[in-house]
Predict the 3D structure of the following.
Amino acid sequence: MAQGPASRQETRAPEPAALEDVQRLAPVLDILPDAILIARADGCIVLANQRAEALFGYPPGGLLGHSVEELVPARYRQAHVAHRAGYHRRPQVRLMGERRELWALRADGSEFPAEISLSPLEGGRLVVSAVRDVSERRRIQEALERRTQELARSNAELEQFAYVASHDLQEPLRMVASYAQLLERRYGERLDEDAREFIRYMVEGARRMRDLINDLLDYSRVGRRGRPFARVALDRVLEEVLAALEPAVTETGARITWDPLPELWADEAQMRQLFQNLLSNAIKFRGQEPPRVHVGARREGPGWRISVEDNGIGIDPQYAERIFLLFQRLHTQREYPGTGIGLAICKKIVERHGGRIWVDTQRRYGAAFHLVLPERPPEPAEEAVP
Amino acid sequence: MTAAAVEILLVEDNPADVRLTREALREGAGGLRHRLHVVEDGVQALAFLRREAGYWEVPRPDLILLDLNLPRKDGREVLQEIKADPELRSIPVVVLTTSRSEEDVLRSYQLHANCYVTKPVDLDQFLEVVRRIEAFWLGVARLPSP
């Protein structure tokens, strides 16, 4: 059992008048969200607000005259008495339980993690304690730590997967493709048309799988191999992308126009990939007319809104979400070849930059992609995970 | 290069891949006479190079084609041991692997690989790669005399 009020040493008992002053505060203390206890130097509780009674599970007035040690689990009581004595030698405002775990004991014997701040009153003859139940915060913290560990583990698994995809899956694939080709090369003339057609499908299947694996690797690299952000002039990025797309532009007779583009903090290589994917899509999914593409830019909030609009075949609004998922395609290989990775990569890049991307579903012709990028995004978190 | 046959050591555990490299060398051999020696893992590779048990009579290779993922002792360890050995380090090592992993590329060069090549899935490209390796290392580059 606790050392009750019997263990008091009344060397520095407060003046009765001071106690009355303090008790006059009671109605004020009752409206506070924290549990407030006022105790004498010997630990005897002289005032407790309603929240304190509720938190510790005592009836109204039930804490008065008890020692604060009764609110401490038995295993910590000895230490608490020593702490209390130490505090009274050098009374000052301070916070307990911030760094170390502090436990409090309810009337029914149950415990809760607590954060306690102390403040001397009446020249140290009284001590005010504000007690807060931090179970919820502790629970959230623990959940967060668990999540962080899970994330680190799943990132490690992804790395492992990326390696497996880049090596172990490619190897058997190469064998299938290469020997099918060798067969055709050496024996093609001795085979009939059917056999050659079968071989062609084998080779095509293997090539397609190679493309999928490589795209998957590119996708996983957006998070794993991103570089730290630096100042990037999007104008220059766009020029480079247009240079790279020159053959497609010439072939299709595309006309590409653009607004002056901003400078912002970003991963330059990923910005290049983002524009490359959006512009090549705009050219690829063209209608009967030669493609016309406009890249727009305007300020929006603390960042920039960039849009890429075209006069192509457009996107059925019902697929507005799906197109950003991995390997989702709306057309056959024959109509528009590809693996369906481009927009998934765009989305991952934009999100790594703290922005968002969506497709305009209100348009009556062509497609319009919009993205909002912050001027200076927070450094991405995923690289911090070991 | 003189008219003497060029000795190539291929370290590769997949027989299908060995055959493919053999075919590629046969198709691509630009007038160069070569002899292909094949070992299946890292332990055998080092035994071959040091002419240890079972490999008393083998020639010193002019070029090593090294896969990275091998049983027992993998290509990275083999590379490290070759480049740490004063007797062997002057033999050019071409890492020839399926891995596109940037880690593997960087690590191989850090271990002083002379060149890193990813094997293409496509046969024609693979033949071309082997032809170019041969043309460069055995035709263009000047190698130390054994």
Q: What stands out?
A: Chain A touches chain B through 22 residues (CB under 8 Å).
